[in-house]
Structures are given as C-alpha cells and as structure tokens.
Amino acid sequence: MATGVIDKLKSHVATLSQISGEAEHVDWSKIETPTDEVVVPHAGLEPAPKDTAEIKALLDKLVVLKLNGGLGTTMGCTGPKSVIEVRDGLTFLDLIVMQIEHLNDKFGSSVPLLLMNSFNTHDDTQKIVEKYSKANVQIHTFNQSQYPRLVVDDFTPLPSKGQTGKDGWYPPGHGDVFPSLKNSGKLDLLLSQGKEYVFISNSDNLGAIVDLKILHHLIKNKNEFIMEVTPKTLADVKGGTLISYEGKVQLLEIAQVPEEHVDEFKSIEKFKIFNTNNLWVNLNAIKRLVDADALKMEIIPNPKEVDGVKVLQLETAAGAAIKSDLYNVRDGFVIRNKLRRDPQNPVIQLGPEFKKVDDFLSRFKSIPSLLECDGLRVDGDIWFGSGIKLKDINGSEDLDIRHQESVLKLESREGWLCRACLLRWRNKSFLNFCCMSLVVFAGYHVKLYGF
What InterPro entries does this protein's entry cite (predicted)? Predict the structure, then answer.
C-alpha cells in the first residue's frame, strides 16, 4: 500500500476515534439553504458556441471519468455493474463508449474515457475494454485505493485478525477519486496532454452526458468545481443534498443527519435538490489540493459485518426506467420519449422478487409501457405478459399490486404459470378484492389508480 494511502487511512482512523464509530452529525440549527448564486438553473446558462471549431476546442480540454468500482452481485450478476445489459444487448459501458465516440466523430475532438476501477472490478474491466480497441475513444483505466476494514471493538485492521482475503478490504467511496487520480499517475499524464477538466459520474448513470452548456460555463467562468443537481423527487429522498453550513457549501448525506431529523431530511419541501454525483472539476485544482493534502472531505463510517465480526468502512463522498419506453437510445445517448406528456418520471417500486437481474427479466415477457403511468408499486411473485400498458387515472385512490399466498396459481393464455395477485384498493371502506387480470394476459391494459 502506498505511503500516501497509509497516511490517509491513519488520518481517517484518528478522525473516527473522535466520533465514536458514528457518522459525525451536523448541527441541525446551522443548516441553511444554498443561495441562488450557488445553485444556477441550467436554463439560465449561456448557450454553447455553435461553431464546430469552437466546440472542438472545448471538448479537447475535457476528460470523461466513470466510477467503475461497483459490482453487480446484489443484482445477481458477476463482474462490474457497468457490464449489465441495458437494452438491445448493449451494456452501460457499451453506451458510454458510443456516447463519447459520437462526440469525437461529430466534432473531430479527442475526448478520452477514464475508468476508475476497484480491486473488485479491475481484472474483469481490463479484459472487457479490449473489445473497444477500434473505437474512436482512447480508454484509460486505474485503480482506486484499497483500505482494510476496521474491527469496531478496537479499530484494528481486519486483515490483522486473520481475514486476509478480499472480505478484509474495501474501496473507500467515490471521494477517493481525487487522490487516486493523482497517485495513479493519470492526473499528470492528462495535464501533459493539455487536458484541463474532468467530468465525473457513475458508470450506471446514462443520464450523465457531456453537456456543452455546462462545459462552456465551466471554462468561461473559470470554475474549479461544478456539481449537477436536480429537483428532489420521492424516489430520491435518501440521496445527498446541498446545504450551506457555517458559511460553506457542502454535501449532506443521510448518515450525517441526527436521527430525530431524518424525516425532515427526506422532505422534498425543505431539501429540494438532489446530488446526481455528476461532477465537473478542474484538473489543476485537483493536483494543487491533493499535493497540499487540502481535500478534507467528511468521513462517513459505513458499518458492515464480515463472518460475524462487526467492522467499519471509512468512506468519503465526492459529491428500471431505462428499459421502458420512457426513453429512446440514439448514438449511446438516452433520450426522453416525446410521447410522455408528464415531465416527471413515474416512481417505480419493485419488491425483492425483482432485485436480481435474471429474476427481473424473467418476470416481464416484455417491458410494460410507462408512457401514461404516474407510479407503480409491485410486491410479490407477480409476472407480466407482453403488450402491457400501465395507465393512471387521475383523482382516484392509491392502488398497490400485491401478492397473496392463498390465491391459487393460474395459467395465462401465454402458458405462464404465475400467482394471481391482490390489488389493495384503499377506498373509504378499505375493501380488498382479487383481480385475476393481473395474471396479465397479452394486450391487457392494467389501470393504476392515482398512485
């Protein structure tokens, strides 16, 4: 382990000792909403240049970096999460490469792709990127740091207790991207190639695209750091938000919120913006701050258990609809379907039976249409046939699609064996009734009432 990484870990442990194994909670009375000078509407940004040569000059200063350290194991997949199929046989990584290649082809630019792997994803990624050798995208890979998990009782490294395998270690969160970029040598390499800015995002976020308006704003105003935020929705209530705290703007994660204020944190009325984790950062600023050890990010202890031993991971933060007809894919870009009239996406909540990718795919003969759906919640062993349209009737009561063990299995005309489901209609008399149509025959329109 590099000396710099060891020093950083010691610093984290020292800080952890002061906060007694819990995330350092903020003083709730000091939290303020960021000003309009800090949060700038995208619509208010100056348009990007239209001249191809000017756009090329902007893009040639840029590097796209994807956080590629996560595994797809929780979804029943092996290997990096970025190689999970999204649509039509294309993976997240396929679409990312297509997006950047489209920019380079269109404007004659040379935007490279960096993949920050973890020790969990490095070997697989090295093999996978070979398939892009002929793409008009230069691909670099590097590893983020690898820290030992700490035993809660005495803060000793878990590997020293005999756990020498991968379970004794962890990648320390996406805030590690800045020192890892420097320690890997990639930062100095990029600066020597004339690159000035990096666009950082998660590898499974296909909405994170190179926005020329933001890039133009970044360069023209000489900003060193920009975070993309969006209006917070009910699907984002646990996500980080921006706050003004003791005169400084910072990211607030749910782990830092005092327990008595968690419900308030989840409110979309008080905390109206959501951190997308799409970051635009000046490369020279990263070098300056990392060299001076001036990047002091809040540490978020993440409790885990390994073979019955309670451990901590010290992490820092840098700041299902895809398969549906809500979006179209063109040149690797995910584009909103114009036939969807509601500007908001529906909130989709699927039960544990849909968590693993194979289970998810097996329960949908084809992905239902969501163009007229305001929200969907499905619990239980429920299967959908082909040609299903999920619709909403405004003004009606909530409707949940739930599973009832006592209902017999039925066979649809498509030959599927599946359980009937219970539609719990929350009307004034709280009556339940069984809806056999949700064993869903081909072409049946399922109406969702005012979710």
Answer: Nucleotide-diphossugar_trans, UDPGP_fam, UDPGP_trans
CA angle centred on 169, ends 164 and 173, rounded to 5°: 175
Instruction: Look up the CATH number of domain 3-319.
Output: 3.90.550.10
Contacts of 433 (CB under 8 A, 6+ apart): 422, 423, 425
Predicted pLDDT at 115: 92
Q: DSSP per residue over 303-328, as a string?
A: EEEETTEEEEEEEE----GGGSTTEE
Judge contact between 439 and 422, C-beta under 8 A: no
E strands along 126-179, which residues?
139-143, 147-148, 150-151, 169-170
Residues of the chain with CATH 2.160.10: 340-449
pLDDT in tens, 359-371: 776 777 667 777 7
Q: How far apart are the first and last CA of the chain?
A: 51
Compute the radius of gyration of the chain from its Cα atoms.
24
Domain boundaries for CATH 3.90.550.10 within the chain? 3-319
What b-and-e string marks burial along 210-247, b requiring 16 or more CB atoms within 10 Å of the CB?
bbbebbbbbbeeeeeebbbbeebeebbbebbbbbebee
Q: Which CATH class is domain 340-449?
A: mainly beta
Which residue shows structure tokens 């990484």? 5
List binding-site positions: 174
**Annotated binding-site residue numbers for substrate:** 174
pLDDT mean across residues, the chain: 72
pTM reported for the whole predicted model: 0.67
Tokens of 184: 């890997």
